[in-house]
């Protein structure tokens, strides 16, 4: 998972293989990001609290 404060997007990559990732999803800040662990446990990250930056250099 990569959080991009200028784009206000989270990039979630999964299904890794030798030449990259089989699945890449962009999720806008404010939407929840859910994960399922190998143990079957699930948790959610609230992206609405992630810091943002103005692309203008502020």
Note down, in words, how this protein is organized.
It is built from no helices and five strands. It is mainly beta and 58 residues long. A three-stranded antiparallel β-sheet has the order 1-2-3, with no helix packed on it. The protein has a two-stranded antiparallel ribbon with strand order 4-5. A hairpin with a 2-residue loop joins strand 2 and strand 3 (20-28).
Mean pLDDT equals 91
Element order, helices and strands? EEEEE
> Which class do the helix and strand fractions yield?
mainly beta
End-to-end distance? 25 Å
Low-confidence sequence ranges: none
Strand sequence of the main sheet, in spatial order?
Answer: 1-2-3
Tell me the number of helical segments per DSSP (H or I, 4 or more residues long).
0
């Amino acid at each position: 998972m990569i959080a991009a404060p200028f784009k206000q997007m989270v990039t979630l990559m999964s299904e890794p293989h030798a030449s990259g990732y089989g699945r890449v999803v962009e999720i806008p800040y404010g939407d929840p990001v859910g994960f399922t662990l190998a143990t079957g446990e699930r948790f959610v990250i609230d992206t609405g609290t992630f810091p943002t930056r103005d692309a203008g250099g502020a």
